[in-house]
Design brief:
With 457 residues, the chain is an all-alpha fold. The protein has helices spanning 2-31, 35-38, 40-47, 64-75, 78-91, 94-119, 132-140, 143-177, 181-196, 199-228, 233-245, 247-251, 254-270, 277-281, 289-317, 330-341, 344-375, 379-396, 402-442; strands at 122-123, 128-129. It contains 19 helices and two strands.
Length: 457
Amino acid sequence: MLEILKTANNLLYTYLVIVVLIGGGIYFTIRTKGVQFRLFGDSCRLLFKSKEGPVKNGEKQVSSFQAFAVSLASRVGTGNLAGVATAIVVGGPGAVFWMWVTAVFGAATGFMEATLAQLYKRKDKDSFIGGPAYYIESGLGKRWMAVLSAVLIIFTFAFGYTLVQCNTIGSAFENQFGFNHVYVGIILAFFILLIIFGGIHRIARVASVIVSIMVVGYLLLALVVICMNIELIPHVFKSIVYSAFGIKQAAGGLMGAAVIQGVRRGLFSNEAGLGSAPNAAATAHISHPVKQGLVQSLGVIIDTLVTCSCTAFIILISPVDISGGQGMGIELTQAALSSQVGDWGSIFITIALLFFAFSTVIGTYYYGEANLRFFTKKKWALTVFRLAVAGMAFLGTCISLEQAWELTDICMGVAGICNMVALFILSPKVITVLEDYLRQRKAGIKDPTYPDWWTHK
């Protein structure tokens, strides 16, 4: 069964998912005339803008930054620590270059799906709600496709990602500190329930704090390591570029491995086009849908060009063996950091892994909730779902997940295909609202508005 799943995954991602996602990123970059480049300044400015739009007395809002934090929380996970290391071992340093390429074009895809999520969002009890299932049903009129997308996202992100992330936490703490995985699972399940029973507002507040601390902290540590080895930086860049394009690598087939590993790990890390981040993007209370599209495109950049690059530089600067002799995943990252800052580096990575993985769990939980609400808004169903996610967290620390992870990958790939089909068909609508935003900016309006678009679709 495991071999069948692996074969299906290789075929799905090598010949379909990667081609569609990268091709889509290039296409959307062309259609938007490089929106991720020419409006990069707006993306940064809008990121920290306070809540906006009409507010009723006592109405709760999710700010643009909080929605961004929820999506970034799900993006920044074990893949940023372990996935990058695996890509370097299998594909060589050149894999890092192709991760960068993936992020550059993926930012345009992130802009498209987040803008659509805002265009087709719906008013929920105390927030907005939306995502691929919502814009597929309302924009394409394909209920069956929307249902398929919702089911796949629930299974992939709320259940599959929870299992995998908590399994990684349990293994890391057991290996580093000798903690019993059962107790780790109980503690994780308790804190997950504590947060998710507070709904999107509590999730957004917690995610904004965790993301701010972990990304900034990890970036500062990477800068310290880089400064300690500043003379090696030219060599690191040379090895990345040479491994990505070198004649020797091309002749030996390593260039192909670098491309496949870099693109695949980059896509898995930043999730551009997979249909996950739009669920968070829809919750933001903003005055123009393009604004959240710009903010979410920045999330793709931060995840891959910043966070993943931190791990890559820590590994490539260090004297560790990147041929797999010191491990392929988190073990390699731990060994690399320990070689630079001492034994406490391994402890730091374990703690960072806890925050990275935990933030992913609460972020991907909300993706599941948004899609569950696509089917029903009954409180008992939501309560059962929340308890099921906590159960998955506990179970994840206690079992081996190779088969579950392979199956999760397949579901994620199919969900991504559904989402990309919708993005291609609905792209003219995104271009229309982008042109409206640009017209207002050209007219000197610093804060473009697109009033109450969700009430007259």
